[in-house]
């Protein structure tokens, strides 16, 4: 038996649908709701979220109030994928309607003094990424005259023994020959 909307909510273009089947994937749920409600009038948007708070609920936005009212009266209490839908008018005005009418104002966060300061990272900077602060003596650095270029390590001479170097080269050459033969 279809129920009517609570008298405290005035009719509007957006319907709140609850007690939906939670096992249905979100794209399928949106498609099925669109197919069901588009018979009553043009559907502008369907919002169905799968978060813990919004599971089993959806908002259906119609182009006009008449279509929304007709859908509410016809479908409230009807079975939809094994569950009886509960439909009411939405409490809040849809952002989509506000954008279409030109009255949309994006939510503005109230600036908080704690949030306006630069966040302090708990991860230390990598060594050598910043120059030391003035007046700080770094061990191993020439503090009298700062050098413009960072010092780099010197390359050591390679100490090859005859047995090790030849063995590795022969193995590498053998691997190269085998891969050439496979082509």
TrEMBL record:
<feature type="compositionally biased region" description="Low complexity">
    <location>
        <begin position="137"/>
        <end position="146"/>
    </location>
</feature>
<feature type="compositionally biased region" description="Pro residues">
    <location>
        <begin position="124"/>
        <end position="136"/>
    </location>
</feature>
<keyword id="KW-0694">RNA-binding</keyword>
<feature type="compositionally biased region" description="Acidic residues">
    <location>
        <begin position="160"/>
        <end position="183"/>
    </location>
</feature>
<dbReference type="GO" id="GO:0097157">
    <property type="term" value="F:pre-mRNA intronic binding"/>
</dbReference>
<dbReference type="GO" id="GO:0030626">
    <property type="term" value="F:U12 snRNA binding"/>
</dbReference>
<dbReference type="GO" id="GO:0000398">
    <property type="term" value="P:mRNA splicing, via spliceosome"/>
</dbReference>
<dbReference type="InterPro" id="IPR045164">
    <property type="entry name" value="RBM41/RNPC3"/>
</dbReference>
<feature type="region of interest" description="Disordered">
    <location>
        <begin position="106"/>
        <end position="183"/>
    </location>
</feature>
<dbReference type="InterPro" id="IPR000504">
    <property type="entry name" value="RRM_dom"/>
</dbReference>
<dbReference type="InterPro" id="IPR035979">
    <property type="entry name" value="RBD_domain_sf"/>
</dbReference>
<dbReference type="InterPro" id="IPR012677">
    <property type="entry name" value="Nucleotide-bd_a/b_plait_sf"/>
</dbReference>
<dbReference type="Pfam" id="PF00076">
    <property type="entry name" value="RRM_1"/>
</dbReference>
<feature type="domain" description="RRM">
    <location>
        <begin position="13"/>
        <end position="92"/>
    </location>
</feature>
<protein>
    <recommendedName>
        <fullName>RRM domain-containing protein</fullName>
    </recommendedName>
</protein>
């Amino acid at each position: 038996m279809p129920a009517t909307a609570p008298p405290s909510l005035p009719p509007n273009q957006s319907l709140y649908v609850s007690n939906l089947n939670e096992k249905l994937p979100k794209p399928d749920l949106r498609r099925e709701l669109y197919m069901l409600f588009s018979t009553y009038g043009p559907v502008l948007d369907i919002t169905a979220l799968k978060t813990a708070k919004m599971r089993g609920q959806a908002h259906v936005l119609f182009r006009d109030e008449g279509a929304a009212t007709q859908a509410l009266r016809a479908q409230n209490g009807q079975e939809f994928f094994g569950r009886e839908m509960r439909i009411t008018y939405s409490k809040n005005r849809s952002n989509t309607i506000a954008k279409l009418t030109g009255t949309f104002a994006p939510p503005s966060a109230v600036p908080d003094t704690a949030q306006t300061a630069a966040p302090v990272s708990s991860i230390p900077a990598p060594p050598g990424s910043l120059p030391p602060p003035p007046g700080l003596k770094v061990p191993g650095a020439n503090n009298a005259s700062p050098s413009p270029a960072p010092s780099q390590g010197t390359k050591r001479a390679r100490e090859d023994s005859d047995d090790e170097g030849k063995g590795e080269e022969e193995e590498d050459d053998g691997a190269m020959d085998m891969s050439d033969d496979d082509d």
